[in-house]
Amino acid sequence: MARLREIFAYNLKGNRRKRGFTQAQLAEKIDVSTHHIAMLEIARNFPAMELVERIADALDIEIYELFVDPLSSHEELVRLYETVANDIERVVGEAIQKALSGKYKDQPIVLK
């Protein structure tokens, strides 16, 4: 649960700042104290789902956006990049082999 609190805190703070709200402004919009927002943003407290809904509404975001792990998104992009790079290398290599195979039938083509 501690990791989920940290993810929520990070996303709450980031989305609040993106909307240009101070902690006090967000607190007023969702009818809680500024102190409570501060405690949520340092992962000291964790909100009830009803409050999560009010926060998402006030920030004009979907609820899930408060729980998306920003590190896992980065890791997924790195994996996607590696997959695409490997696929490009394979396809280009095959295309070169195919193009050269007719011209140099007697010589094997070795790609490194």
Q: What would your notes on this structure say?
A:
This protein is mainly α and 112 residues long. It is built from five helices and no strands. It is rod-shaped. The longest helix has 32 residues. The mean pLDDT is 87. It has two domains: 65 residues, lambda repressor-like DNA-binding domains (434 Repressor (Amino-terminal Domain), Orthogonal Bundle), CATH 1.10.260.40; 44 residues, no CATH class. Helix 2 crosses helix 3.
Structural class: mainly alpha
- Strand-residue proportion: under 5%
Low-pLDDT sequence parts = none
CATH fold assignment of the largest domain = 434 Repressor (Amino-terminal Domain)
Q: What is the string of SSEs from the N terminus onward?
A: HHHHH
Write the layout of secondary structure elements.
Blueprint: H1 2-19, H2 23-30, H3 34-41, H4 49-59, H5 70-101
Helix pairs in contact: 2-3
Index terms:
434 Repressor (Amino-terminal Domain), 2 domains, 112 residues, single chain, mainly alpha, 5 helices
